[in-house]
Write a sequence for this structure.
């Protein structure tokens, strides 16, 4: 029996090609993303685990810092804390972590490697996550080490003199070593400049000995160390065992990789699901073409079960062959790609191929089961064939389309629209979108008939071949429909993502831009903004006002937060600072204007504020700020200068808000940016850059998602090629006859091309139409369910691009079938 | 009575009293109402074992319908059809399939071979479907008698029409069915190839006691049969023993008048 199955697959090789292509494309994509991301993730996780293995106890910030809007709340451990911890019984070595902005200046004073991180060199080998690749560790104040990648990309050599710019200003230094972090070049995204202890505190902080985190090594058990350390850990920090710390590091190192893998594989699965349409169609056509053969089998005694089993076995063979080929191609492609990248100097972390069984078997299982599932229905139908078909004239596919389908589709669509108009929850609206999406698939044969009726007059203008093209498309409406559906899925999603995405982007950006804010924010990390520096900003043409204030990291009721003080009246003039209760200007010593939190503290209640060095003070809430201003995020909470001085000691301004003249042009912006370039610790950000940033994120997401959806469009393209090729095979006699009676080859080819374009148009137009409707419905429902008033507009240009792409796809898909349609000699075409 | 497939291998007695198949008041109506076509109007007929019966009649007279209904390929509207003494009108689809597989053989006008299988695999197909192993000596003999020796590893597309029909005949003969049905088996063949096939069928009846029911339009083909049944408008209107081509032709001419 297996013999019969195998020879049948071999015999129908040509017909199965597209099925194989559809499976291979999806499986290869799925498997390649798995291989690459597992390799990278595995390498990064491995690095973290290896490089931090010497750590027995870690003192780290208690909550994740640094998310968007949490500016200026880096807490530090001071020198006394580290010494207290070092003195604990069982601790044999300590290492502090301190980082700050650092970069290089060239001979003309221009900055390069401007996003690099300056990092305190850890002298204890076992605790230091970095490894010296060449040279030695930096020790003297004028020595530094750079990471391998930075050395390569900036052409830095051992022994070379460079100017290092940090918060402490420019400093001539010698490169004495290059470093690496496990299999990666650097621990920091844009490169690491290692600075010895003898200079680090001046260069990376304000001269005081302080650290962001600490690693300890000891002889006692890790859990015992944690117990002992607890009393010495200041507010805002926590003690972790080395094991827990390493696990956290590995987790966060691999997090992005795992996330990207999941996202990419979701698109691969989508492509495979679109492939399911192609596979379903192919099996249907193959079975229709073999009806007589199947009927003979049934006449001479094959039971429906045997027929079904035989066809399913064919599906299994095709699915397995396709999936295994897909995995092999993925291995080949990733190997070549990684080799190519390495040759081009791009380091892909990790080594070898992460060929784990889960990945490989998962991909094969996925491809095979989708193939099997898509052919279940055709196989069942074939099993039910009447043996009498064997002796009747050629079996034909049903060409009628049932009205019931159209009715069901209309009802589904109507219920969907109703869901958008009246649905009372997000779930109902989601279900409505799904219904609307499914409706055209259910009614697709009817849609095909309607479209051919619509296009017949237009295509008839092309002459006989145009009319024949429409007839051919309408000849087996179900087959055309399935082909168009594969394209519909992709186009629908592209349209929906584009329409809903752009409208939501415009709305969000507009809302953010409505929130007033300072035009520019200057921030110094680890140093102060001296009055002279602020004066230089004031002198810039177009700058109306500059207001500096002091900001300090503290914990308020145990939560890391920022505390600001300064001329709040002046700040209020530049920034959009509002209060919900009380007033800032009326704030008295010992009072706080609190940035509101989830637990809604009231005016009159007290909060506990702990500064870096542990100084603690209970403050009375004198006012509550309104968080609906970007500037509030910059400021944190407000106290009087005297209060801040008691908590954090004396200090200068660290943040300044700039207001520009209304007519200030780009020249002003350039000057502001240039001025900041002299001081690596100073960052100048446009006040309303958040709007632009979020707009950029939206744009990126829309582009990325659409790019990935192209995978499924490619599979749909394979589907069109497939349907045309199969129908040309069937129509060999007919095409031969047409050519005998005088249709010249270019006209035959044009007929095939028109068929392809028509099928592609049906899929594309349905996708665009339903996509737009669903996009509108989603926006309408959002507007209705929330207070947000999102305006809806159709991105006409984009829709145009999609429609034109659909037509181009059709033409592309027709190239091969059209050529094949006239390849056989006329007499061959007539032979049976 | 040879109703068990297990008994097929033993030589079959050739008494006229034994029937391979029969139909009782067989009627078949296609369609309904005004569009109804009465293809068979109460046909009662016996097919004795070890006999070669030909069915003739004008086009549309119901020959194929009669054969298909008796062979279990289609169902009667009313009346009964028997294979041996099994009333097939009462069988389920599955039982019918198994009955065809184990007890019947078919030869079609369009040879109806599986294009992906070699001649040999096609011949073995009914046994493969039944999960049985072929008797090599018998296979060899069948292949030799139909004159396919040396060609059995070819695909159908590499064989001539006559050779393909020989494959179909061999496929029908190999499982030693109780009864072989043939619908215009020589319809698509030239005269001399047709004669070879027919004499081979004749020999299967004479030498092996095979039972064959054949529908044909060709008086010469009918002359190979033991008996000819004449069908007109869904009814049996005449029968002829030991037919010759001339007598059959004469009888047929009367239909046209
Ligand atoms: N599937 C069908 N549906 C409707 N009518 C049918 C069907 N099959 C056969 N008929 C009708 O039944 C009658 C008998 O058909 P049948 O095929 O048995 O004739 P036949 O004697 O075999 O003819 P021929 O010699 O042309 O093969 C004819 O009138 C035919 O039109
Ligand atoms: Mg007939």
């Amino acid at each position: 029996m297996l013999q019969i199955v195998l020879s049948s697959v071999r015999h129908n090789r040509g017909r199965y090609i597209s099925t194989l292509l559809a499976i291979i494309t999806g499986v290869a994509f799925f498997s390649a993303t798995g291989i690459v991301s597992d390799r990278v993730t595995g390498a990064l996780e491995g690095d973290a685990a290896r490089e931090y293995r010497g750590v027995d106890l870690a003192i780290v910030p208690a909550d994740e810092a640094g998310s968007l809007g949490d500016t200026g709340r880096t807490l530090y451990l001071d020198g006394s804390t580290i010494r207290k911890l070092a003195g604990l019984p069982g601790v044999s070595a300590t290492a502090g972590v301190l980082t700050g902005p650092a970069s290089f200046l060239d001979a003309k004073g221009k900055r390069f490697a401007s996003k690099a991180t300056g990092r305190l060199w850890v002298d204890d080998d076992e605790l230091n996550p970095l490894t010296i690749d060449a040279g030695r560790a930096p020790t003297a104040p004028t020595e530094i080490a750079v990471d391998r990648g930075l050395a390569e990309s900036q052409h830095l050599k051992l022994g070379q003199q460079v100017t290092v710019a940090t918060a402490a200003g420019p400093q001539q230094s010698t490169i004495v070593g290059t470093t690496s972090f496990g299999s990666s070049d650097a621990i920091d995204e844009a490169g690491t400049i290692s600075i010895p202890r003898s200079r680090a505190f001046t260069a990376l902080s304000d001269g005081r000995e302080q650290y962001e985190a600490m690693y300890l090594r000891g002889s006692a058990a890790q859990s015992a160390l944690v117990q002992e350390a607890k009393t010495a850990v200041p507010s805002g920090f926590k003690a972790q065992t080395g094991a827990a710390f390493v696990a956290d590091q590995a987790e966060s190192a691999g997090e992005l990789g795992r996330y990207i893998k999941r996202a990419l594989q979701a698109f691969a699965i989508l492509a495979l699901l679109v492939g399911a349409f192609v596979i379903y169609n192919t099996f249907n056509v193959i079975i229709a073409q073999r009806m007589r053969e199947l009927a003979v089998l049934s006449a001479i005694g094959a039971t429906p079960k045997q027929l079904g089993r035989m066809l399913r076995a064919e599906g299994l063979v095709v699915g397995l062959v396709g999936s295994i080929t897909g995995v092999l191609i993925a291995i080949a492609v990733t190997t070549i790609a990684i080799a190519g990248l390495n040759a081009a100097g791009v380091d892909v972390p990790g080594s070898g191929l992460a060929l784990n069984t889960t990945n490989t078997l998962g991909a094969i299982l996925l491809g095979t089961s989708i193939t099997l599932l898509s052919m279940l229905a055709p196989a069942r139908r074939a099993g039910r064939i009447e043996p009498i078909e064997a002796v009747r004239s050629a079996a034909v596919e049903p060409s009628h389309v049932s009205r019931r389908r159209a009715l069901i589709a209309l009802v589904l669509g109507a219920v969907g629209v109703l869901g958008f108009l009246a649905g009372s929850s997000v779930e109902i609206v989601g279900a409505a979108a799904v219904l609307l999406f499914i409706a055209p698939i259910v009614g697709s044969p009817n849609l095909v008939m309607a479209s051919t009726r619509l296009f017949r007059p237009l295509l008839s203008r092309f002459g006989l071949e145009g009319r024949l093209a429409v007839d051919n498309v309408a000849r087996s409406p179900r087959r055309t429909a399935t082909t168009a559906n594969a394209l519909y899925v992709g186009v629908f999603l592209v349209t929906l993502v584009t329409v809903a995405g752009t409208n939501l982007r415009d709305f969000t950006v507009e809302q953010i831009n409505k929130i007033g804010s300072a035009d520019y924010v200057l921030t110094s990390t680890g140093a102060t903004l001296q009055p002279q520096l602020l004066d230089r900003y004031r002198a810039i043409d177009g700058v109306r006002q500059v207001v500096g204030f002091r900001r300090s990291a503290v914990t308020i009721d145990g939560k890391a937060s920022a505390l600001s003080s300064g001329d709040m009246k002046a700040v209020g003039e530049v920034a959009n600072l509002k209060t919900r209760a009380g007033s800032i200007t009326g704030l008295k010593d010992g009072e706080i204007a609190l940035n509101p939190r989830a637990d809604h503290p009231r005016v009159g209640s007290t909060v506990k504020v702990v500064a870096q060095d542990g100084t603690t003070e209970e403050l009375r809430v004198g006012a509550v700020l309104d968080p609906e201003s970007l500037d509030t995020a910059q400021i944190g909470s407000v106290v009087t200068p005297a209060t801040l001085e008691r908590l954090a000691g004396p200090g200068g301004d660290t943040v300044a808000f700039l207001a520009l003249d209304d007519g200030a042009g780009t020249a002003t912006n350039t000057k502001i940016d240039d001025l900041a370039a002299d001081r690596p610790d100073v960052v100048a950000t446009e006040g309303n850059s958040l709007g632009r940033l979020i707009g950029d994120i939206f744009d990126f997401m829309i582009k990325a998602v659409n790019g990935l959806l192209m995978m499924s469009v490619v599979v749909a393209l394979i589907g069109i090629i497939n349907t045309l090729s199969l129908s040309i095979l069937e129509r060999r006699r007919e095409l031969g006859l047409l050519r005998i009676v005088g249709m010249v080859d270019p006209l035959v080819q044009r007929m095939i091309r028109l068929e392809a374009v028509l099928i592609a148009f049906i899929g594309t137009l349905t996708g665009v139409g339903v996509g737009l409707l669903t996009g509108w419905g989603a926006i309408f429902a959002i507007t209705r369910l929330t207070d947000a008033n999102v305006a809806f507009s159709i991105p006409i240009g984009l829709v145009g691009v999609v429609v034109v792409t659909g037509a181009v796809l059709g033409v592309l898909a027709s190239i091969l079938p059209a050529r094949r349609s006239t390849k056989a000699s006329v007499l061959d075409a007539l032979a049976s | 009575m040879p109703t068990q497939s297990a008994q097929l291998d033993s030589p079959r007695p050739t008494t006229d009293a034994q029937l391979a198949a029969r139909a009782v008041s067989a009627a078949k109506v296609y369609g309904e109402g005004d569009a109804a076509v009465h293809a068979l109007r109460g046909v009662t007929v016996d097919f004795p074992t070890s006999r070669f019966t030909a069915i003739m009649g004008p086009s549309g007279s119901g020959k194929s319908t009669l054969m298909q209904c008796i062979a279990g390929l289609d169902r009667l509207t009313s009346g009964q059809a028997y294979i041996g003494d099994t009333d097939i009108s009462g069988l389920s689809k599955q039982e019918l399939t198994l009955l065809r597989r184990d007890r019947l053989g078919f030869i079609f006008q369009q040879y109806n071979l599986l294009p992906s299988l070699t001649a040999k695999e096609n011949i073995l197909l009914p046994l493969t479907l039944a999960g049985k192993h072929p008797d090599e000596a018998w296979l060899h003999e069948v292949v030799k008698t139909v004159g396919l020796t040396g060609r059995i590893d070819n695909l159908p597309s590499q064989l001539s029409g006559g050779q393909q029909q020989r494959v179909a005949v061999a496929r029908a003969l190999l499982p030693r069915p109780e009864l072989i049905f043939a619908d215009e088996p020589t319809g698509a063949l030239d005269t001399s190839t047709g004669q070879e096939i027919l004499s081979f069928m004749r020999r299967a009846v004479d030498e092996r006691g095979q039972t064959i029911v054949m529908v044909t339009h060709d008086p010469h083909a009918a002359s190979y049969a033991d008996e000819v049944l004449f069908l007109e408008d869904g009814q049996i209107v005449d029968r002829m023993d030991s037919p010759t081509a001339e007598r059959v032709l004469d009888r047929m001419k009367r239909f046209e008048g």
Observations:
- Residues B 63-64 surround magnesium ion (ligand 2) (CB under 6 Å).
- The longest strand of chain B covers residues 19-30.
